[in-house]
Amino acid sequence: MLKDKIEKILNRQVEREGYSSLLYLSMASWAETSGYPGIADWLYAQSNEELDHMLQFIHYINDRGGKAVIPGLETPPNEFEGIRPLFEAVLKHEQFISASINEIVTACIEEQDHTTNNWIQKFVSEQIEEESNVQEILDKLSLVGSQNLYMFDRDIMDMRNKGESTGIAE
Questions:
Q1: Domain map of the chain by residue range?
Q2: Rounded Cα–Cα distance for residues 23 and 136 (Å)
Q3: Any idea what DSSP says for residue 74?
Q4: Alpha carbon distance, N-terminus to C-terminus of the chain
Q5: Which of 110-114, 119-123, 138-142 has the lowest mean pLDDT?
Q6: What's the whole-model pTM score?
Q7: What's the DSSP call for residue 4?
Q8: In this predicted model, what pLDDT tens digit does every residue of 77-109 receive, in sequence order?
Q9: Cβ distance 105 to 117 under 8 Å?
Q10: Is the dihedral of CA 75, 77, 78, 84 positive or negative?
Q11: Residue 142's CB: how many other CB atoms inside 10 A?
Q12: What superfamily does domain 4-165 belong to in CATH?
């Protein structure tokens, strides 16, 4: 049975994961209509992953005797200044999600909820990988500059597929 404090913070994460999915979906749509189909595919995959995370939180809350609350979600931005600013926003958002996951860990420790603490550790590990992957993309963007985005757009899914084959991008 979930304690009220844990149920509340997990439901907050349901909302944050849902917003993450919408944010990346909006970014994907912008990229697709801006002529970057590879970047769009990468972002669509990220959106699906975040939706899956939201569902995992919903199922966990319900399975542990709580009640998942399906939130209304804020509309994400739908215009971006370019590819680099877009990925800088992705990194900033992933850092926000990492901090949010860490707050859940802290609450679990305070409430001595070892079961939830154990369950949430997969998200702690995943956030390390997510931030690293986005930083790698930003590093590659620094290398290619703004004049060589065609090849970057073409190759970005290889970066994601490499991560999936090693278990990085789950």
A1: 4-165
A2: 20
A3: P
A4: 28
A5: 138-142
A6: 0.90
A7: H
A8: 999 999 999 999 999 999 999 999 999 999 999
A9: yes
A10: negative
A11: 9
A12: Ferritin, core subunit, four-helix bundle (1.20.1260.10)
